Amino acid sequence: MALIVQKFGGTSVGTVERINNVAARVAAARAQGHDMVIVLSAMSGETNRLIELAKTITREPNAREMDVLMSTGEQVTIALLSIALEARGCPARSYTGAQVHILTDSMFNKARIVDIDGARVRSDLAQGRVVVVAGFQGVDEQGNITTLGRGGSDTTAVALAAALKADECQIYTDVDGVYTTDPRVVPDARRLDRITFEEMLEMASLGAKVLQIRSVEFASKYNVPLRVLSSFEDHGTGTLIAAEDEDMEQAVISGIAFNRDEAKLTMLGVTDQPGVAGKILGPVADAGIEVDMIIQNVAEDSTTDFTCTVHRNDYLKASNIFRAIATELGAREVIGDDKIVKISLVGVGMRSHAGIASKMFQTLASEGINIRMISTSEIKISVVVDEKYLELGVRALHDAFGLANLPGK
Amino acid sequence: MALIVQKFGGTSVGTVERINNVAARVAAARAQGHDMVIVLSAMSGETNRLIELAKTITREPNAREMDVLMSTGEQVTIALLSIALEARGCPARSYTGAQVHILTDSMFNKARIVDIDGARVRSDLAQGRVVVVAGFQGVDEQGNITTLGRGGSDTTAVALAAALKADECQIYTDVDGVYTTDPRVVPDARRLDRITFEEMLEMASLGAKVLQIRSVEFASKYNVPLRVLSSFEDHGTGTLIAAEDEDMEQAVISGIAFNRDEAKLTMLGVTDQPGVAGKILGPVADAGIEVDMIIQNVAEDSTTDFTCTVHRNDYLKASNIFRAIATELGAREVIGDDKIVKISLVGVGMRSHAGIASKMFQTLASEGINIRMISTSEIKISVVVDEKYLELGVRALHDAFGLANLPGK
Q1: Residue of chain B whose alpha carbon sits nearest to that of A132
Q2: Residue closest to B211 by CA, chosen among B141, B127, B152, B268
Q3: Per-position DSSP letters for B143-155, written without gaps between them
Q4: CA–CA dist A222, A161 (Å, integer)
């Protein structure tokens, strides 16, 4: 008998039939004696329908009112699931974000959760009810409806699990877990039984779009065990994302992440003086462009070369900014390439094992893949290579580190 | 500079284009310096779409959850109208029923308003904002979302107007006011400039479906001047429904109402003893059948005849109940007719004028129309006649009482 928070995304509640399936699953878990709290997204397509309505009126709809509009999507699904549960004889109560006091700041459209008062939910659970909560939404101190932004329902689920000290937070999606790499690239990619929060954060930010990164940060901060499961399969235990388990021997590498849509920009021959990096990146950040890797080589003849990667969509805009700054700083030249990708090895075991980097570089070299950039952190090594080598590189590394053969970690 | 509450129904906000039209109208009134509070229904069709979703899951959806579901309809329209107002540079804030503390009892699906806290609305008005409130919904003392039942948006508007001591509550509909009778029956029926609450109550309950009767009762109780206007015409002053004005000379008759879907049932030869009427009507009421006219003739030979009218849809069910009771009470016979209609003259002037009834009866007689039943109240006279005489009767009375020629009252 555990307290479990389950979150179902838009495709899992996309039709009345699927809502009935979710109800059956929840009622079965309740019948086993578990206390169940369910967090739902809007039916798939509904959020876009609402956005369309607003955009027909004006291109830039008022942010506060957009949240009033958008929050209706989840309110519909929580009501329908509760109706389906009650129809099965399983007592249920639905609540909007405001009703269970999911207190957020007042940043409409991208609010952050500040506090959750779990009293009302606990009282319903004590009375044997399933509690169904609208994801993605909250209320600010003035009582205004807020939304957490896209994917915010994962965060709602984790925050509720933290506030209620739930035993586990289960995220139901359209995949059955986290894989060693994308199975579309490496057919024998393997589902991981377990992965640490840190690894998941590196995997998520590097392109494994299973979970919203904010929800993983939240789970890590409050130590809420997260489980990713498939809504469409009845069996399977998915992937558990939890704190590092000291007793278990960690595999060296957990997975290989990659980003396809990268571009890089280099400013050559910049005078090497304090504050140069800030002068270059300031205007880029001001233009709303996110920078990923940043590399500055050792100075030579009092000048240096400064390189960073950006999303491919921002390449042209960033190039123009780079050229303007280069003129200002008297730099020699700006060069760039928007046909690059990033491949990253991720694993907490990396900390205690030497030689991972050299094995990675040798593996790529033996396939004739030239490495353009390298960046490392405590639990990951990323390399930038030409776009055409992506699949070859990922498959070679997946083999070299024996990921397909892992007995599940 | 007045404080005006305006209510727009489902067809008035049925499309984004119409919502834009409403925004233009509201912004224009605001620009004239009026404080504006707007109450909206769901977009036409939306309420039925939501009901359909729930009914696909179960025939008898949980009442509490139905209110969570249904209340999203108005929440969408208040957000869209506020977006449209803001896009025109007219500051606006939308609020759900819960947000402006429209406190109701806990009768889900048909809750009644207990109290409204106007503080939040007043504060926004003081800051120059248009306040847009979701009609039809409220919140109970436990914080559960409730709905007022169909047509409840009119009641929300009147209740808000009462709480805010508004100068006028304007109900925008698809007709441009209250008429002396249905213009489809009498082409020269005339729009009334003014009508009293009492007259409107008699007109509404008799089939003039312009306003929800509960909202008129509410307006009368709190003396809120109500105005019925067309959403689709820019000019026109509609019909003002207000308390009787002592200074004005009242026309004798304000209008002619009628109900097509009537049926009557008579129990012949019932022993005339105390409690008989209750014994007959108790089981009818228990079956959820509403009874309209009730007539009991003077006793003759210690027996009497008891007649009542019901809605035609209830005729068969009521007949069966009548026959069962007749056997029980030893009554002679039950007879009935479901091809009847009711025609009523309504007017506060009737109080001080003799001869209205006789003029009505003579007018009908001169057209060869036989009167089956008669019932009177202080400000109305109703007769039941054969269905086929409805149009003839209404036209004859409209002419006889000179309604088309009224200079507007």
Answers
A1: B65
A2: B152
A3: S-EEE--TTHHHH
A4: 9
Which residue on chain B is closest to A18 by alpha carbon? B57
Shortest distance between the Cα of B83 and any Cα of chain A, in A, equals 6
Q: Does A61 touch chain B (CB under 8 A)?
A: yes
Please give the Cα distance from A62 to A69 (Å, whole number): 11
Cβ atoms of A30 and A129 within 8 Å: the answer is: no
Q: Tell whether A98 lies on the interface with B, counting CB pairs under 8 A.
A: yes
Provide the token pair at A244. 């590092």
Q: With beta carbons less than 8 A apart as the criterion, state whether B80 and A57 touch.
A: yes
Distance, CA of A299 to CA of B192 (rounded, Å): 90
Write a three-state SS string for A254-284. Answer: CEEEEEEEEEEEEEEEEECCCCHHHHHHHHH
Taking only the tens place, the pLDDT of each residue in A331-348 is: 999 999 999 999 999 998
- State how far the Cα of A268 lies from the Cα of B142, in Å rounded to an integer: 66
Q: Scan for tokens 């249904």, then name that residue.
A: B70
Contacts of B61 in chain A (CB under 8 A): 83, 86-87
State which amino acid sits at residue B391: E
Distance from CA of B210 to the nearest CA of A (A): 29
Three-class SS state of A379: coil
Residues from chain B that touch A60, judged by Cβ atoms under 8 A, are: 87
Of A342, A286, A278, nearest in space to A314 by CA: A286
Predicted confidence (pLDDT) at residue A150 exceeds the cutoff of 70: no
CA separation for the pair B228, A267 (Å, rounded): 70
Confidence of residue B299 (pLDDT cuts 50, 70, 90): low
Nearest by CB to residue A76, choosing from B72, B96, B98, is B72
- Pair B192, B205: CB distance under 8 Å: no
Residues of B in Cβ contact (< 8 Å) with A127? none
Mind listing the pLDDT tens digit for each residue in B364-386? 999 999 998 888 888 889 999 99
Contact A351, A379 (CB under 8 A): yes
Q: What residues have CB less than 8 Å from A129, skipping those under 6 apart?
A: A91, A92, A93
Q: Rounded to an integer, what distance in angstroms lies between the CA atom of residue A168 and that of residue A377?
A: 29
Share of chain B above pLDDT 70, in %: 95
Interchain proximity A65–B83, CB inside 8 Å: yes
The rounded distance, in Å, linking the Cα atoms of A314 and B341 is 74
Tell me the two tokens of residue B258.
């009628």
- Give yes or no for residue A117 having a pLDDT over 60: yes
Put simply, whether A19 touches B (Cβ < 8 Å) is yes
| Minimal Cβ distance to B80: which of A64, A69, A80 | A69
Answer whether B57 sits within 8 Å of A16, measured CB to CB: yes
* Distance, CA of B260 to CA of B342 (rounded, Å): 7
pTM, two decimals, is 0.82
| Residue B351 token pair | 């109080």
pLDDT of A124 strictly over 90: yes
CA distance A320 to A334: 10
**Cβ contacts from A onto B, under 8 A:** 119
- Scored b (16 or more CB within 10 A) or e, A308-333 reads bbbbbebbeebbebbbebbeebebee
Task: Using an 8 Å CB-CB cutoff, list chain A residues near B46.
Answer: none
Residues in chain B within 8 Å Cβ distance of A84: 57-58
Nearest by CB to B68, from A19, A62, A94: name it.
A94
Cα angle A232-A238-A243, degrees, rounded to a multiple of 5: 145
List, in order of start, the domains of chain B with CATH numbers: 3-173 (3.40.1160.10), 256-405 (3.30.2130.10)
Assess B68–A contact: CB distance below 8 Å, yes or no.
yes
Q: Are B392 and B326 in contact (CB under 8 A)?
A: no
Band of the pLDDT at A152, cuts 50, 70, 90?
Answer: confident
Residues belonging to chain B = 409
